[in-house]
Amino acid sequence: MTQTPVPETPPSPQQADTTMAMVVYGLYLAGMVIGFTPLVGVIIAYVYRGKGPDWLEAHYRYQIRTFWIGLLYGLVAMLLTLVVIGVPLLIALAVWMIIRCVKGFKGLQEQRPPTNITTWLV
User: Fold this and answer.
1) What is the protein's membrane topology class (predicted)?
2) Please, what's the b/e burial string for 9-30 (b: 16 or more CB within 10 A of its CB; e: otherwise)?
3) What's the CA gap between 111 and 115, in Å, rounded?
4) If we measure between CA atoms, which residue out of 70, 2, 82, 80 comes closest to residue 37?
5) Does 115 fall in a domain?
6) How far apart are CA 47 and CA 41, in angstroms?
7) What phi-psi label fits residue 84: left (phi over 0), alpha (psi between -120 and 50 degrees) or beta?
8) Is 119 domain-assigned?
9) Total structural domains in the chain?
10) pLDDT per residue of the chain (122 residues) written in tens, 0 to 9
């Protein structure tokens, strides 16, 4: 008796490789310790934008917005450290970044887009 090989089933159209999106979120979190990693993360997000299903595209857009909004908040907080209020703002920025990254990780695991992509808050 000969056995016929079972063909491998191709991945469904909704399945996508979320590895690079997870790497970007990880680089953003590492940026709290190593300053240049968010820059690497946003470059990766720009490169991989347009190469996946809609829900994954939403993550890349969310990551790009997180970088630019975080940079703006960071610059304002750094300027305000001259009048002492910047220190609590930098702490708030770190909390904001952690929340956005955790929210993104959770969305990737559930294969759904993050909520409120266009918001400036969480």
Assistant:
1) Multi-pass membrane protein
2) eeeeeeebebebbbebbebbbe
3) 12
4) 70
5) no
6) 10
7) left
8) no
9) 1
10) 566 655 554 445 456 789 999 999 999 999 999 989 999 999 999 999 998 999 999 999 999 999 999 999 999 999 999 998 999 999 999 999 999 999 999 999 999 999 888 888 87
Helix (H, G, I), strand (E, B) or coil at 29: helix
Residue with tokens 């993360």: 41
Residue 55 lies in a domain: yes
Identity of residue 121: L
- The total number of residues written for the chain in this structure: 122
For residue 48, tell me if it sits in a domain: yes
Q: What residue numbers bound the domain in which 31 lies?
A: 19-109
Q: Which of 2, 8, 28, 3 is nearest to 105 (CA)?
A: 28
Residues 78 and 52: their CA atoms lie apart, in Å, by: 36
Give the position of tokens 């953003």.
Answer: 28
What CA–CA distances, in Å, run from 18 to 4, 21, 72, 115?
Answer: 33, 5, 27, 17
